Amino acid sequence: xxxxxxxxxxxxxxxxxxxxxxxxxxxxxxxxxxxxxxxxTPPPHIWTKAAESFGAELNEKSGGAHTVQxxxxxxxxxxxxxxxxxxSGALDMAFMTVAxxxxxxxxxxxxxxxFLAQDIGHAARILRxxxxxxxxxxxxxxxxxxGIDYGMxxxxxxxxxxxxxxxxxxxxxxxxxTPFDPILDFYNILGAAPTPMPLPAVYDALANGQVDAIDMDxxxxxxxxxxxxxxxxxxxxxxxxxxVGLVSAKVWAGLGxxxxxxxxxxxxxxxxxxxxxxxxxxxVWIEQVRETDKTFKQxxxxxxxxxxxxxxxxxxxxxxxxxxIRDVAASTAN
Length: 334
Ligand code: BEZ
Description:
about 50% helix, about 20% strand, D-Maltodextrin-Binding Protein, domain 2, alpha/beta, globular, 14 helices, single chain, binds benzoic acid, ten-stranded mixed β-sheet
Protein backbone atom coordinates (compact mmCIF):
# COMPACT_ATOMS: atom_id res chain seq x y z
CA UNK A 1 0.00 0.00 0.00
CA UNK A 2 2.82 2.36 1.02
CA UNK A 3 4.77 1.56 -2.20
CA UNK A 4 1.66 2.23 -4.33
CA UNK A 5 1.18 5.60 -2.64
CA UNK A 6 4.83 6.55 -3.21
CA UNK A 7 4.59 5.58 -6.87
CA UNK A 8 1.50 7.79 -7.30
CA UNK A 9 3.35 10.72 -5.70
CA UNK A 10 6.32 10.14 -8.01
CA UNK A 11 4.02 10.08 -11.07
CA UNK A 12 2.24 13.27 -9.98
CA UNK A 13 5.60 15.00 -9.45
CA UNK A 14 6.78 13.95 -12.90
CA UNK A 15 3.55 15.20 -14.47
CA UNK A 16 3.96 18.57 -12.73
CA UNK A 17 7.53 18.85 -13.99
CA UNK A 18 6.48 18.00 -17.57
CA UNK A 19 3.68 20.62 -17.37
CA UNK A 20 6.10 23.25 -16.03
CA UNK A 21 8.52 22.59 -18.90
CA UNK A 22 5.69 22.72 -21.46
CA UNK A 23 4.31 25.94 -20.00
CA UNK A 24 7.70 27.65 -19.96
CA UNK A 25 8.13 26.64 -23.61
CA UNK A 26 4.69 28.02 -24.44
CA UNK A 27 5.33 31.33 -22.77
CA UNK A 28 8.59 31.68 -24.73
CA UNK A 29 6.89 31.18 -28.10
CA UNK A 30 3.96 33.39 -27.17
CA UNK A 31 5.98 36.32 -25.83
CA UNK A 32 9.27 36.46 -27.67
CA UNK A 33 9.96 36.60 -31.34
CA UNK A 34 12.89 36.95 -33.70
CA UNK A 35 11.52 39.25 -36.39
CA UNK A 36 13.07 39.52 -39.85
CA UNK A 37 12.89 42.90 -41.60
CA UNK A 38 13.80 43.23 -45.29
CA UNK A 39 14.77 46.26 -47.37
CA UNK A 40 16.30 46.99 -50.73
CA THR A 41 18.52 49.83 -49.55
CA PRO A 42 22.23 49.26 -48.72
CA PRO A 43 23.54 49.17 -45.10
CA PRO A 44 24.56 52.86 -44.84
CA HIS A 45 21.23 54.15 -46.24
CA ILE A 46 18.93 56.18 -43.96
CA TRP A 47 16.14 53.59 -44.24
CA THR A 48 18.46 50.75 -43.22
CA LYS A 49 19.84 52.71 -40.29
CA ALA A 50 16.28 53.50 -39.16
CA ALA A 51 15.37 49.80 -39.38
CA GLU A 52 18.37 48.91 -37.21
CA SER A 53 17.49 51.56 -34.62
CA PHE A 54 13.90 50.31 -34.58
CA GLY A 55 15.17 46.77 -33.92
CA ALA A 56 17.51 47.87 -31.14
CA GLU A 57 14.76 49.82 -29.35
CA LEU A 58 12.22 47.01 -29.73
CA ASN A 59 14.75 44.65 -28.19
CA GLU A 60 15.35 47.03 -25.29
CA LYS A 61 11.69 47.91 -24.65
CA SER A 62 10.65 44.25 -24.77
CA GLY A 63 13.23 43.45 -22.09
CA GLY A 64 15.26 41.44 -24.61
CA ALA A 65 12.31 39.26 -25.63
CA HIS A 66 12.10 40.48 -29.25
CA THR A 67 14.92 40.79 -31.73
CA VAL A 68 14.87 42.20 -35.25
CA GLN A 69 17.29 40.91 -37.85
CA UNK A 70 17.64 43.44 -40.66
CA UNK A 71 18.29 42.18 -44.23
CA UNK A 72 19.40 45.13 -46.44
CA UNK A 73 20.42 45.29 -50.11
CA UNK A 74 17.71 42.99 -51.50
CA UNK A 75 19.17 39.99 -49.61
CA UNK A 76 15.66 38.52 -49.40
CA UNK A 77 14.77 39.37 -53.01
CA UNK A 78 13.35 42.39 -54.79
CA UNK A 79 10.44 44.34 -53.32
CA UNK A 80 7.80 42.36 -55.23
CA UNK A 81 9.26 39.16 -53.75
CA UNK A 82 9.47 40.66 -50.26
CA UNK A 83 5.83 41.71 -50.49
CA UNK A 84 4.89 38.13 -51.38
CA UNK A 85 6.88 36.89 -48.39
CA UNK A 86 5.03 39.35 -46.14
CA UNK A 87 1.73 38.07 -47.49
CA SER A 88 2.62 34.44 -46.75
CA GLY A 89 4.12 35.27 -43.35
CA ALA A 90 7.60 34.09 -44.44
CA LEU A 91 8.85 37.64 -43.79
CA ASP A 92 7.73 39.60 -40.72
CA MET A 93 8.45 43.23 -41.62
CA ALA A 94 9.77 45.50 -44.36
CA PHE A 95 10.53 49.16 -45.03
CA MET A 96 9.35 49.36 -48.61
CA THR A 97 8.77 51.95 -51.33
CA VAL A 98 5.11 52.95 -51.62
CA ALA A 99 5.87 52.51 -55.33
CA UNK A 100 5.82 48.72 -54.87
CA UNK A 101 2.69 48.87 -52.73
CA UNK A 102 0.96 50.97 -55.41
CA UNK A 103 1.45 48.09 -57.86
CA UNK A 104 -1.08 46.13 -55.69
CA UNK A 105 -3.14 49.00 -54.29
CA UNK A 106 -3.50 51.64 -57.07
CA UNK A 107 -5.04 54.22 -54.71
CA UNK A 108 -1.47 54.84 -53.51
CA UNK A 109 -0.60 56.03 -57.02
CA UNK A 110 -2.10 59.38 -55.91
CA UNK A 111 1.13 60.19 -54.05
CA UNK A 112 2.97 60.35 -57.39
CA UNK A 113 0.88 63.12 -58.89
CA UNK A 114 3.52 65.30 -60.58
CA PHE A 115 4.30 68.42 -58.53
CA LEU A 116 1.92 67.40 -55.74
CA ALA A 117 4.43 68.68 -53.17
CA GLN A 118 5.97 72.15 -53.45
CA ASP A 119 9.08 71.07 -51.59
CA ILE A 120 10.41 68.40 -49.23
CA GLY A 121 8.75 69.87 -46.12
CA HIS A 122 5.41 69.90 -47.89
CA ALA A 123 5.91 66.24 -48.91
CA ALA A 124 6.39 65.31 -45.24
CA ARG A 125 3.24 67.22 -44.23
CA ILE A 126 1.20 65.39 -46.88
CA LEU A 127 2.47 62.03 -45.60
CA ARG A 128 1.67 62.96 -41.99
CA UNK A 129 -1.92 63.91 -42.85
CA UNK A 130 -4.90 61.91 -41.55
CA UNK A 131 -5.95 61.22 -45.15
CA UNK A 132 -2.58 59.69 -46.07
CA UNK A 133 -2.43 57.68 -42.85
CA UNK A 134 -6.05 56.59 -43.29
CA UNK A 135 -5.13 55.02 -46.64
CA UNK A 136 -3.00 52.49 -44.74
CA UNK A 137 -6.24 50.98 -43.37
CA UNK A 138 -6.97 49.33 -46.72
CA UNK A 139 -3.68 47.40 -46.78
CA UNK A 140 -4.54 44.37 -44.58
CA UNK A 141 -7.58 43.49 -46.73
CA UNK A 142 -6.14 44.43 -50.08
CA UNK A 143 -2.49 43.44 -49.81
CA UNK A 144 -2.21 41.27 -46.68
CA UNK A 145 0.09 43.67 -44.83
CA UNK A 146 -0.31 46.14 -41.97
CA GLY A 147 0.97 49.63 -42.79
CA ILE A 148 2.41 51.29 -39.68
CA ASP A 149 3.37 54.72 -41.09
CA TYR A 150 5.29 56.52 -43.82
CA GLY A 151 8.90 57.46 -44.35
CA MET A 152 10.30 58.80 -47.63
CA UNK A 153 13.37 59.31 -49.78
CA UNK A 154 13.20 62.87 -50.93
CA UNK A 155 11.84 64.19 -54.21
CA UNK A 156 12.67 62.97 -57.70
CA UNK A 157 15.17 64.54 -60.08
CA UNK A 158 16.50 63.57 -63.52
CA UNK A 159 20.15 62.91 -64.18
CA UNK A 160 21.30 62.49 -67.78
CA UNK A 161 24.51 61.29 -69.35
CA UNK A 162 23.97 63.81 -72.16
CA UNK A 163 22.79 67.37 -72.61
CA UNK A 164 19.12 68.10 -71.85
CA UNK A 165 17.64 71.48 -72.74
CA UNK A 166 13.99 70.51 -72.81
CA UNK A 167 11.76 67.45 -72.47
CA UNK A 168 12.25 66.86 -76.22
CA UNK A 169 15.83 65.84 -75.44
CA UNK A 170 14.47 62.95 -73.35
CA UNK A 171 12.41 61.59 -76.27
CA UNK A 172 13.36 57.99 -77.03
CA UNK A 173 16.05 58.05 -74.32
CA UNK A 174 16.42 54.99 -72.11
CA UNK A 175 15.60 56.47 -68.74
CA UNK A 176 15.84 54.32 -65.63
CA UNK A 177 12.77 54.31 -63.42
CA THR A 178 11.80 52.50 -60.22
CA PRO A 179 9.52 49.66 -61.39
CA PHE A 180 5.98 51.03 -60.83
CA ASP A 181 3.14 52.31 -62.97
CA PRO A 182 2.69 56.00 -62.05
CA ILE A 183 6.26 56.86 -63.01
CA LEU A 184 6.12 54.62 -66.09
CA ASP A 185 3.10 56.61 -67.27
CA PHE A 186 4.81 59.94 -66.61
CA TYR A 187 7.82 59.16 -68.78
CA ASN A 188 5.72 57.45 -71.45
CA ILE A 189 3.70 60.67 -71.74
CA LEU A 190 6.99 62.55 -72.17
CA GLY A 191 7.98 60.21 -74.99
CA ALA A 192 11.04 58.81 -73.19
CA ALA A 193 11.79 55.08 -73.10
CA PRO A 194 11.29 54.37 -69.37
CA THR A 195 13.41 51.42 -68.28
CA PRO A 196 12.29 49.80 -64.98
CA MET A 197 15.29 48.85 -62.88
CA PRO A 198 15.66 48.24 -59.12
CA LEU A 199 17.97 50.54 -57.18
CA PRO A 200 20.94 48.15 -56.73
CA ALA A 201 21.31 47.79 -60.53
CA VAL A 202 21.37 51.52 -61.28
CA TYR A 203 25.01 52.46 -60.75
CA ASP A 204 26.47 49.98 -63.26
CA ALA A 205 23.70 50.60 -65.79
CA LEU A 206 24.41 54.33 -65.70
CA ALA A 207 28.20 53.95 -65.66
CA ASN A 208 28.30 51.59 -68.64
CA GLY A 209 25.71 53.47 -70.69
CA GLN A 210 23.01 50.80 -70.55
CA VAL A 211 20.68 53.72 -69.75
CA ASP A 212 20.93 57.34 -70.94
CA ALA A 213 19.37 58.91 -67.87
CA ILE A 214 17.95 58.03 -64.46
CA ASP A 215 15.05 59.16 -62.27
CA MET A 216 16.53 59.51 -58.78
CA ASP A 217 16.51 61.42 -55.48
CA UNK A 218 19.07 64.06 -54.48
CA UNK A 219 20.56 62.03 -51.64
CA UNK A 220 21.64 59.15 -53.84
CA UNK A 221 22.68 61.38 -56.76
CA UNK A 222 25.13 62.86 -54.29
CA UNK A 223 26.10 60.01 -51.95
CA UNK A 224 26.30 57.20 -54.51
CA UNK A 225 28.09 59.58 -56.90
CA UNK A 226 25.70 59.02 -59.79
CA UNK A 227 26.53 62.60 -60.83
CA UNK A 228 30.03 61.46 -61.80
CA UNK A 229 28.50 59.69 -64.80
CA UNK A 230 26.29 62.59 -65.87
CA UNK A 231 26.53 65.72 -67.95
CA UNK A 232 23.23 67.24 -66.80
CA UNK A 233 21.25 67.26 -63.58
CA UNK A 234 17.64 68.45 -63.89
CA UNK A 235 16.54 69.63 -60.47
CA UNK A 236 12.80 69.34 -60.92
CA UNK A 237 11.36 67.91 -57.66
CA UNK A 238 8.74 66.42 -59.98
CA UNK A 239 7.48 63.63 -57.68
CA UNK A 240 7.38 62.51 -54.08
CA UNK A 241 8.91 59.17 -53.13
CA UNK A 242 7.24 57.79 -49.99
CA UNK A 243 8.25 54.68 -48.10
CA VAL A 244 6.06 52.64 -45.74
CA GLY A 245 6.83 50.48 -42.70
CA LEU A 246 4.99 47.16 -43.11
CA VAL A 247 4.27 44.15 -40.93
CA SER A 248 2.90 40.88 -42.35
CA ALA A 249 -0.86 40.73 -41.57
CA LYS A 250 -0.42 37.03 -40.74
CA VAL A 251 2.34 37.77 -38.26
CA TRP A 252 0.34 40.70 -36.85
CA ALA A 253 -2.64 38.41 -36.21
CA GLY A 254 -0.45 36.24 -33.98
CA LEU A 255 0.77 39.14 -31.82
CA GLY A 256 -0.79 40.29 -28.56
CA UNK A 257 -2.16 43.83 -28.12
CA UNK A 258 0.83 44.89 -26.04
CA UNK A 259 3.32 43.79 -28.70
CA UNK A 260 1.33 45.44 -31.47
CA UNK A 261 1.25 48.73 -29.55
CA UNK A 262 4.98 48.54 -28.82
CA UNK A 263 5.90 47.79 -32.46
CA UNK A 264 3.61 50.56 -33.72
CA UNK A 265 5.01 53.17 -31.35
CA UNK A 266 8.67 52.38 -31.98
CA UNK A 267 8.40 51.88 -35.74
CA UNK A 268 6.44 55.14 -36.07
CA UNK A 269 9.14 56.96 -34.14
CA UNK A 270 11.90 55.87 -36.53
CA UNK A 271 9.82 56.37 -39.69
CA UNK A 272 9.11 59.90 -38.43
CA UNK A 273 12.83 60.43 -37.98
CA UNK A 274 13.36 59.33 -41.60
CA UNK A 275 10.93 62.06 -42.73
CA UNK A 276 12.72 64.64 -40.56
CA UNK A 277 16.15 63.60 -41.85
CA UNK A 278 15.10 64.14 -45.47
CA UNK A 279 13.42 67.46 -44.72
CA UNK A 280 16.62 68.68 -43.09
CA UNK A 281 19.17 67.27 -45.53
CA UNK A 282 17.58 67.22 -48.97
CA UNK A 283 18.42 70.90 -49.62
CA VAL A 284 22.00 70.24 -48.49
CA TRP A 285 22.50 67.28 -50.85
CA ILE A 286 21.10 69.16 -53.83
CA GLU A 287 23.36 72.11 -53.03
CA GLN A 288 26.35 69.78 -53.06
CA VAL A 289 25.27 68.42 -56.45
CA ARG A 290 24.82 71.99 -57.74
CA GLU A 291 28.41 72.78 -56.75
CA THR A 292 29.88 69.98 -58.90
CA ASP A 293 31.16 70.79 -62.39
CA LYS A 294 28.02 69.28 -63.99
CA THR A 295 25.36 71.28 -65.79
CA PHE A 296 22.68 71.96 -63.20
CA LYS A 297 19.25 73.06 -64.39
CA GLN A 298 16.53 74.12 -62.02
CA UNK A 299 13.14 73.61 -63.65
CA UNK A 300 9.46 73.75 -62.68
CA UNK A 301 6.28 72.13 -64.00
CA UNK A 302 6.44 74.20 -67.22
CA UNK A 303 9.50 72.18 -68.29
CA UNK A 304 7.23 69.13 -68.70
CA UNK A 305 4.56 70.84 -70.81
CA UNK A 306 1.12 69.28 -70.32
CA UNK A 307 2.51 65.93 -69.11
CA UNK A 308 1.36 66.57 -65.50
CA UNK A 309 -2.22 67.23 -66.71
CA UNK A 310 -2.16 64.14 -68.92
CA UNK A 311 -0.91 62.09 -65.97
CA UNK A 312 -3.79 63.41 -63.85
CA UNK A 313 -6.31 62.35 -66.48
CA UNK A 314 -5.01 58.77 -66.40
CA UNK A 315 -4.66 58.51 -62.64
CA UNK A 316 -7.93 60.17 -61.68
CA UNK A 317 -9.50 57.00 -63.12
CA UNK A 318 -7.05 54.60 -61.42
CA UNK A 319 -6.76 56.08 -57.93
CA UNK A 320 -9.92 56.94 -56.05
CA UNK A 321 -7.73 58.97 -53.64
CA UNK A 322 -6.21 61.42 -56.11
CA UNK A 323 -8.74 64.19 -55.40
CA UNK A 324 -8.49 63.76 -51.62
CA ILE A 325 -4.68 63.81 -51.71
CA ARG A 326 -4.72 66.91 -53.91
CA ASP A 327 -7.01 68.56 -51.32
CA VAL A 328 -4.57 67.63 -48.54
CA ALA A 329 -1.72 69.09 -50.60
CA ALA A 330 -3.68 72.32 -51.09
CA SER A 331 -4.50 72.63 -47.40
CA THR A 332 -0.92 71.93 -46.24
CA ALA A 333 0.90 74.12 -48.80
CA ASN A 334 2.86 77.15 -47.61
C1 BEZ B 1 14.75 54.07 -56.20
O1 BEZ B 1 14.21 53.08 -56.71
O2 BEZ B 1 15.16 55.01 -56.89
C2 BEZ B 1 14.93 54.11 -54.70
C3 BEZ B 1 14.48 53.05 -53.92
C4 BEZ B 1 14.61 53.11 -52.55
C5 BEZ B 1 15.22 54.21 -51.95
C6 BEZ B 1 15.67 55.26 -52.74
C7 BEZ B 1 15.53 55.21 -54.12
